[in-house]
Amino acid sequence: MGQAIAARAEALGAQVVGGIGRDGAFAGPYDDAMALAAACDVLIDFSTPDALPGSLAAAVATRTPIVIGTTGLTESDHARIDAAAADVAVLQTANTSLGVNLLRALVEQAAARLGADWDIEIVEMHHRHKKDTPSGTALLLGASAAKGRGGTLAGLSRFDRMQDGPHDREEGGIYYASLRGGSVAGDHQVILATDGERIELGHRAENRSIFATGALRAALWLAGRAPGRYTMGDMLGF
Asked: Domain 2-92+208-236 sits in which CATH superfamily?
């Protein structure tokens, strides 16, 4: 993602002044996280949950807005992000694709207008190296469906059909299926099915440049914003 962002930056009117690789090595003239953050208008973090606290600390210390695209976050990670958002502008999302975020809006509208007799299934596939399941994007779509139904992600999501042995599908529940294999950048499909008909809403990521484009668009929008927690929906005007 760092390389994809660097490749797309100039075309979108941005400049990459430096970076930190997954091995901790610095690219560019800065060899200290605080110095790098101070030189930026916006930080973009596509790291790991373990590395995120360091990025947040640098952002807060230098009052630098930060876009967070890291996935696999826990409740404690989100609590750290909430705390940082009291001091700096933070846009956090599990998916920076503009298409995926439009899909979220469509899923919410569909779920709001169709009754609980329409079953919701979310199917996602990623490359063989992705560890978290369901994907962060699948959970974003699940949250949108739950919001449309007037519920919450935690309250309506059902993650493992076999956990308690075979059982009937729960009406109103949001179910997930995760596939892993090959080099798939990211496929997501939301299926709303009832007796006699179904609706399929989906998105396919053909390469990672779409995430870089969305992240850069988000960074350009976030620069100069007041402290707070923002979303891709805010950036897109939803």
From this structure: NAD(P)-binding Rossmann-like Domain (3.40.50.720)
